[in-house]
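Appendix B, example 12.
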Amino acid sequence: MTIMPYITVTRMRRTIAFLAAVISLSLFVGGTAFSAVSVSVIPTGDNTLAGGGRKVHSLVSGATSDNSVTWTTSCGSKVDNTGFTVWTAPGSATTCTVTATSVEDGTKNAVATFVVWDNATVRLSNIPSQATVFKNQPIVIQSILWGSTNTAVTWDNSGGTLTGTGREVVFSSSSSGTYTITSTSGADGTKTGTTTVVVTDNAWSGSATPNRTMPIDCQHVGSGTAYEVHSEADWDSVPWNTLGAGDTVMIYSDVVYHKQANIKTSGTASQPIRICGVPADNGALPEISGANATSAPGQNYGPSPNSIQGYGGIVIYLYGSSYYGGAVYPNYIIIEGLKFSGFHESNTYTDLNDNTSKNYVGGAASIRSQHSGNLSFRGNEVTGCGNGIFAMASNNVESKVTRNLLVEGNYFHGNGVDGDYLEHQNYLQAFGLVVQGNYYGRNLTGALGGQLKARAVQGFYRYNYFEPAARMFDLVEEQDDNGMVFPWYGIDANELVNTSRADIVANLEAYQDPFVYGNILHNFGSPATGWMVHGAADTGDQKYNYGGTIYFYHNTVHIVVAGSIAYRSGIFDFGPYQYALSDHTTWPIARVTNNAIYTDATVSPYDTIFFLNRYRSDRVALDKNWISTAWGTGNSTGGDGTGIASTNPVNPAYTWQMGTINTQVYGTGNLIGDTSLPFSATTYIPTAAGPLVGASASLPGKAAALPPMMQYNPSTYLMTQRTAITDIGAVQYSEAGDTTPDPFSWDNIVGAELSTPTESGNTTSIIGMDNGASISISGTGCEYAVDGSGYSTSTPSTIDAGQYVVLRVTSSDTHNTFKSCTFTAGTRSQVWTVLTHSFAADLSHPRGRFGGRGRWR
């Protein structure tokens, strides 16, 4: 068959040329070339509190040369970064959009829409709500605020000494008595939190127990009943089911107690239920063992097969219908000064339901909080358990959470299950969590779990010492209580406390930013920790990630590891990047400030290779930090210490533009360092006149309201007060001697005569520091006198505790004018001022210097 016989070769060429022209023209619309560019953003929308913030990430597909975007917002403000912008909501309720527009094709964009709430309920409390301490023992108090991005508080104390003005303060008293420390919200002045501190007649020794724990003064100070336990029969006689406000169970070290208990009742904020250990004469703690343990009769852990008796030693759990409705849980409970051992699947207990011997579950713990409020776990040794301590928050209702949990001054070691990664020294799910002053030794040999695993909303992790484990910090997603945190998840119909969407948004706001500071991370020997801080969903479902900033500051990291090959060790791991993205996907960023990171790169015969992040897509923002200059050495394919994506591949579809950007580590130019160890390998005190001393930078963002107030010494197993934050790392050099006196002041002078030598209105004793503290004064004409000596600008140059000081300055020769003097003792300074009177008197007036009514004229 012949087709179009009349078309010649020439005509065919012309036809092809014409068609090509038509096709070419079709690629232009209105004179603009057709573009295959598309833009997407995640999250596509969310809810936030007024003044809150969210990161919005961009993805540009189809661009030929430029994958970047420009960001605009209809309200609020923003700070742009590579691949994302940080948007801050305005201060009142509204709806805002954040738009990403392609640089290559300005007609293509994507929009995220945010609903801003300003009517969440402001709630304020303190952790702890109550504590019993020795004279001069420092007690750290943390404000916990919900419902506002204004987390500022003011503090007041009924006596004693209170140090600090931020969200964390330190209280102590040299006199016995009962003191109240009150925080008041800056967002809502009607909301307050209180801590009741009972100071006993006994003095703080400054020494840990033989169990490597913070000492506890187990005196009965409450208004309830004291139950003394010297035997297992005494244990069984304690009315565990009905313990009430102010009751104290005092457990002595006469025997090892193979016992369990269930606590289902509550104390009050000032009169908690207290279970404490009375140490032996040598200081050793009383021991509670899970091996062949029995429970006191008449306790209710729930019916078989759902009984949770096999989950721990002391189980905090209110079984019954009230458990399912409203904010009903055991509240205001303190457990301290005890040794727990053997609550482990290899051991058995006697089941109360059928009187048979059964093995504990794999996750059995020293104590298990199935739900509770204001629980303190202080000064305990925990060893040989599955989980060292376990706290639950589940089922999307307030009645099933653990709220305001304090874990302080404990020694955790030898916990876990051989060959299993699901059990940890701590496994903590809580709304309001403070973990401080603990010593984390190695897990059980062969156990694959971590040190501190937390699924927390508003978590503070500080002043701890860590030996190696699979992970030191495993700060992962809220898993069992999503309806309490994520507005898009939906509020449970049974919830009676967090009933408004704004309250859930407030929980989400508090979830965004964990704080990790003042810790010592000692990665040594074998096995060692590969990645010290995990900070994302361990299920891989990225929509539950922290969406804000993991603040990591004033920590000291010491890496001396051994292995059969060149050992990779690093800090941040925000993977796995596994699940497909959703409208709610978000990723955290680590803000890294004032940390000291030393790695011994020559552990013969192998080198240690150090990385800041595990995956190329892990986001790390570096401020000033000290780091060994050998970091990243030997890594030829992974960004020289800024991600090893070549050996840990990530599907670009799960990380967007991170598949095309070499690294997400920013600020390497801010790092300082050299090759020498800049601190003591035992106390971690910086080397005198070394590179850490006086080198710290200002704390960024929300960390500025949480400067380190304490520090941990693994040689003494205790926290002590930190006198300043001028040094990089977890320990201040000045702590080699106490050069910071207690606060002091002089009364300012108002209405002084002109050009007149003027003395301070009161003498002030300088106390609270070691003898020989340096003193100085600054300001024109300012002088001081010590213990009645003559006035001088520089003599004496030192002062001993208890000496008193008077100041003097010649007042100004001008009316209504200040003269200021700054007196410094050790590391503390105080300003004193003298103000001249406001005008020259008219001495010719018949009434003299005053008007007829005694007023200045």
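The first strand starts at residue 28 and ends at 29. Helices lie at 9-26, 232-237, 501-511.
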